[in-house]
Amino acid sequence: MKRTTLKDLAKMLNISPSTVSRALKDHPDISSSVKLKVKEASEMFNYIPNDFAISFRKKSSKVIGLIVPEISMFFLPSIINGISSVLNKEGYRFFILSSDDSYEAEKEHIETCINSRVDGILISFTKETKDDEHLKKLKEMEIPVIIFDKTIPQSSFESVIFDNIKTTEQCAEKLIDHGCKNILAIFGDENLEITQSRLKSFEKKIQQSPSIRVEIIFCKSADIVKQKLDLLLDDDSFDGFFAMSDETLMGLHSSLIKRNLNNTNKKVVAISEGTLPKYLDETYEYQINDAYRMGTFAATKLMDAIKKVNPDYPKGLGNCYYL
């Protein structure tokens, strides 16, 4: 069945489209009998208001575009919950676009957001994204943008990231304080800025204790962690492990279970969203990167930017907020 339009209802009832529109909005100038007829006709023929046309007239879609590098069971669900908690209170909806870690897909998603007339965009960059050139059109069109989690050095847009230096140093301190002398440190994709940031912080802290030996590996997934540890755990001298994320921790945990090393005196420390370690092993220590808080903070900053879109609002100052 063809979608019923406002003009279709007007033609059926032999009244003007503007009268139908006002009747649906319960306008006081429209009689009760006309309102009743319009309501009955709209229900009978399944009339659904055209949100796009309404947003065009109001110059606000009340919709946000959320662009992420990938859909993952780690971290992202809590981010989404945080974003949703803020946007729902503000009467906003949002749709999610996954770039599959492709810069070209990320550019296409930005065009999709523009064409969908979103009021603002929350974006976490792909590992292929090296600059913010593809965001310049958004700046020109005065569409507010907040970059979160995976970002790049730039000064055009506000961004929200975790304090990777502080968090990673705290994890290294836990291993040092436990007395670990031979540590295996598991990091994620070495091409990502977040990985390099955490690596530098970890190495800097550990180097303050010259007696500690550290072996570092890079793994893009939990499965790759398991593959590499199948060989590395032949060396039984490791007495401490560091995992830079929940994903790397999952791979580490699986490998320790396989070799019955999880109940030994070996120390495991990770950076985590906070939920996973509690279900894996209560002896694991972790520093929390609160994804829910990041979601609420990023969404709040975006709402602030949307509400302040006027000639006096300083757009794109490039502020970076550390959580």
UniProtKB/TrEMBL annotation:
Membrane-crossing segments per the record: 63-80
The organism's superkingdom is given as Bacteria
Please tell me whether the keyword Membrane is annotated for this protein: yes
Show the CDD domains listed in the entry.
HTH_LacI, PBP1_LacI_sugar_binding-like
HTH lacI-type domain location: 4-58
Q: Keywords in alphabetical order, please.
A: DNA-binding, Membrane, Transcription, Transcription regulation, Transmembrane, Transmembrane helix
**Per its UniProt record, what PANTHER family does this chain match?**
HTH-TYPE TRANSCRIPTIONAL REGULATOR GALS, LACI-RELATED TRANSCRIPTIONAL REPRESSOR
Q: What is this protein called?
A: LacI family transcriptional regulator
